[in-house]
Amino acid sequence: MLQPETRKFTVSQITELVKQHIEAEFYDVTIEGEISNFRPSSTGHLYFTLKDENAVISAVMFRNRAISLSFTPADGQKVSVWGNLSVYAKRGTYQIIAERMEKSGEGDILATLEERKRRLASEGLFEESRKRPLPLLPSRVAVVTSPTGAALRDILNVTARRNAGINIVVLPCPVQGEEAAAKIARQIERANMFQLGEVIIVGRGGGSLEDLLPFSDEVVVRAIAASTIPVISAVGHEIDLSLSDLAADLRAPTPSAAAEIVSASRDELLARVRDLRSTMTRELERRIERIRLLLREFTAARLERNFRIMIQPVLLRLDDAKEGLVRSLRDRLVDARHRLELSVKNLESASPIEVLKRGYSVVTDGETGRVLRDARETAAGKGIRVRLHRGGLGATVEEITQ
Q1: What is the pLDDT of residues 218-260, one digit of tens each?
Q2: 357 in helix, strand or coil?
Q3: Rounded to an integer, what distance in angstroms lies between the CA atom of residue 169 and that of residue 135?
Q4: Which burial class, exposed, middle or buried, applies to 384 when counting CB atoms under 10 A from its CB (0-12, 13-18, 19+)?
Q5: Domains in the chain: boundaries
Q6: CB 205 within 8 A of CB 151
């Protein structure tokens, strides 16, 4: 029998207490483990189990969170799951409701890549100003990739289809693993040393974040940045992004796209030439027609009329200036004549001759000819001369009066 002091609970009550305790204590936790029994539902929810050597835990990721995953979960993958623990009362089990999930170790890898990206960017390795244009029609292309990978097959197929005359120089190297980065960088340097191509394609097919790590290695990024030959980075699929993409002169979303960029189709080139010829012809015709319209304005009659229209204001200004000059000279002459007449009158009024006309005379000493102004300047018996308006008189002084 149960002891009297034992507490009694229903299944629902004890489950609710456990639920409250677990959900209050274990929220926003991270669990690392291996995916097993992965079961995606038709509604988009993901059901799976996380396990390690000694235990398992159920997990669920609802559709609104699952659509943000950068990879497709599968059994056997090691992952880190962020979320909250919850109790599923109907089964009496606890589980983690996943908010985020990434492959185990990806968080550390992404943090390392972000730090490397900031450091290399600060050195200017990703600057747009240092990127060079690609040659329009390269005759030889160097390809740094795995000789057995799908990327090389895609490049060869595309170039053969679009422009069979292009030469492909393959510089083989591993594209994943610890030794891949150094060998990729060495092949880029070799392509530059021996001028093995007019453009270099560096790339591989898609893969996991770990698989693509060599193309974000510092030695590869620096080799691409130091290349004197333009480099196209074609790493993974369109959604993948490596530091090589940022350092290269051009990023292609896939190796096939890179091959299309360097192998311009002959038909496309011919179409471009035809378009350019049509454009040039239209432009020349337009300019010729414009010149013809302009030449219509240059007939003899139009030129004479235009010349008259142009010269008429000048002639009018010249006539106005001439008339103004004549008026000014006439006014100056009238003024000068008036002043001259006044001066003549002043001179005439002051002339002794004019005085003589009025009945006056001038008396001079008969011997010296000196003008006598005072009776005391001569004496009785002396000769004098009298100047009249007309002629003169000789006389002898008989009497002097004071």
Answers
A1: 999 999 999 999 999 999 877 778 999 999 999 999 999 999 9
A2: helix
A3: 16
A4: middle
A5: 12-105, 119-264, 267-296, 356-396
A6: yes
Q: Is residue 1 over pLDDT 60?
A: no
Surface-to-core class of residue 130, CB atoms within 10 Å of its CB (0-12 exposed, 13-18 middle, 19+ buried):
exposed
- pTM metric for this prediction: 0.52
**HSE on the CB side for 124, CA within 13 Å?**
4
* SS3 state of residue 379: coil
CA distance 389 to 155: 136
Report the SS3 class of residue 225: helix
Fill in the amino acid letter for 309: I
CATH assignment of 119-264, among 3.30.70.260, 3.40.50.2300, 3.40.50.261, 3.40.50.1980: 3.40.50.261
Q: Are 185 and 128 spatial neighbours (Cβ–Cβ below 8 Å)?
A: no
Distances (CA, A) of 141 to 157, 195, 255: 14, 10, 13
C-alpha to C-alpha distance for 222 and 188, rounded to whole angstroms: 10
Report how far residue 12's alpha carbon sits from residue 382's, in angstroms, rounded to the nearest whole number: 180
CATH number listed for the domain at residues 12-105: 2.40.50.140
DSSP string, 309-352: HHHHHHHHHHHHHHHHHHHHHHHHHHHHHHHHHHHHHHHHHH-H
